[in-house]
Batch of 2 targets.
Target 1
Amino acid sequence: MRADIVTIFPAYLEPLRLSLVGRAQEHGTLQIHTHDLRMWTTDVHRTVDDAPYGGGPGMVMRPEPWDAALSQITARVADSRPRVVVPTPAGTPFTQRHAEELAREPWLVFCCGRYEGIDARVIETWADDEISIGDYVLAGGEAATLVILEAVTRLLPGVLGNSASVADDSFSDGLLEGPVYTRPPVWRGTEVPPVLRSGDHEAIARWRRSQALRRTLLRRPDLLEHREFAEADRVVLAA
Ligand SMILES: COc1cccc(COC(=O)c2cn[nH]c2)c1
């Protein structure tokens, strides 16, 4: 996968050189190219923003630098066009399904907006996905791009050591992850649930499913709506 990121703060994306995403780059699974939007400005002050039509607070990112940047970046390869992603509070809520979909794309381009946003005509012309990572406003799309890219990268083949951990992900079955434990068996007087040390793998799977269902019912009942559950699950949910 190739990911191009357009931003006025390229340094903000340095963390992508670390850890999981950094390793994926070393293995050639992922190539990340960061671009400074100001490279496509033409004035001496390298202006990327201007006052909003209609008035109101803050500034809006001008269309010309974005159009020049995206035209050049996407012209890289003749017959293929990247999927252009714009992180924004006004976007579609980002979910694991969305991460799985993006992980199948060969080429992503992230547009990091700042100020009050990017001129709508750029979004109209270029954006394939407007994605929200949550109902809050950040100062720019860089942090959201780090979040989206991390969720996507960990799904790429060979990136996570134990590929099984992707299959067991939270949300992979649409439920929240239940509690996890490791040594010591007793810590501060609290014992690890004995079933987990029983070696009875069927009982362990049942216990984990029950914990995930109960936690989901408590914290995220919305994830349980419009879903059919087997009798065994219904018993847990009714408890
Ligand atoms: C493109 O226009 C804008 C405008 C304002 C802020 C941003 C950055 O994204 C977020 O704030 C965000 C993304 N998901 N949840 C919050 C982009």
Target 2
Amino acid sequence: MSDSTVASDFSSIPILDYSLLDSPSHRPKFIAQLQHALINVGFLYLSNHPVSPADIDSLTQYIPKLFALPQEAKDNIRMANSEHFLGYSRLGAELTKGKVDQREQFDIATRHVCRWKEGEPEYYRLWGPSQWPDEDLIPGFRDTMERYLDQIQNLSYKLSSLLVEAFGLPPNGLAHFYDTDERMQHRSKIVRYPVVKEGDDDQGVGPHYDAGFLTFVACPPLLQASPHRGLQVQNLSGEWIDAPPIPGTFVVNIGKALEFVTRGVARATSHRVISPKGATTPRYSVPFFQNIGLGVQLANQVLDFPPEILKLRNQRGKVAATDSVNFSEFDKEPSGKVNLIGRIKSHPDVGERHYPELFKQIFPPGFTGKGSAY
Ligand SMILES: O=C(O)CCC(=O)C(=O)O
Ligand SMILES: [Fe+2]
């Protein structure tokens, strides 16, 4: 097969029904669909999942209220305060591929106490407590978000064990990538993409890969602007395929770390968000990024697959074009360092303040606005 041959391309994102797992006779169908989605698409919708609809509804109600907090209350918890890159970012504070993203967001992570001690690798400073808005201003929000994060974290672990099954790996085949619960932290964001005018810059978030293992995006349709393009996914031929919100589902996708350790069996797929245009309300989303242990050296952990799985990968064909920046550091650096570099590139102001040495290595002349950020 020549490099330009695309054996199995996709024009839509498969929808997987999680409730198939409840019945022993339907379970194999779910596993087969998961195998196809992981190898050939890198994206899937998950319907009938176990995260409580009442908690998702409650979070959905909070989201517009969160962004409507007084600017001062939001700035009090700005990301620049946090060596963990957690907190509020104003519109235009984040970069992808060196270009400003048109989104406003709160980065919030699962509960964690920073473990870093003087003399240890600096990337252990990456994980630590979230910054929360004043409880009096938005009562109950923190509790709802923490409950949501607990559930989505559990679902993400469940999906990684199903992935092991779909790939014919030994049980616990991915266990060594994760630490114990209290030594792991997963990150989430609550994002608002404002409506832009025709002719304005519409990079909600530029083309990119996610860094970790698995991402789950809740995109509450109730909060979506009237018909407009939002999340788009790049297929093997380089075409952008729409991934519109589907009620009651999560969009799940593969990150670069999982692609790396599976030798490309699981596909990390380039994606972007186009800002809403000609709409009356912003677009909101809540991505959750499942991480792996910070100290894991991915190059030492590449997995072995049964030959039939490698055959499916080879039949897929190669990616013809991608507009996304690659994570080239995985083959030499621990996962924590790769993540820290990614965070500094996305938020140079936070990086310069808290990691001045590494910042200088990444942006030797200082940040000029033309960096090669993810
Ligand atoms: O907002 C979305 O739908 C996806 C955002 C995304 O891809 C990201 O934050 O990595
Ligand atoms: Fe993403």
